[in-house]
Sequence to fold (56 residues):
Amino acid sequence: MKKIQKGNTTIVIHSHLADLDKEEQKSWFTTEWANNNKVLKAIVEAAVACEIEEDE
Fold:
């Protein structure tokens, strides 16, 4: 678990990924993408869809 304070908001991340450094995160992401992790791909698809909506 990792806590981040932004102004009056406390963000709590319940993921082991938050505890990894940038290279470890990149390695995990690459491995999981290659393994066709459906949850990861759905999250990426949702993020891309939000980005496209903002551009329109």
Summary: The mean pLDDT is 92. The first strand starts at residue 2 and ends at 6. The chain is about 55% helix and 20% strand.
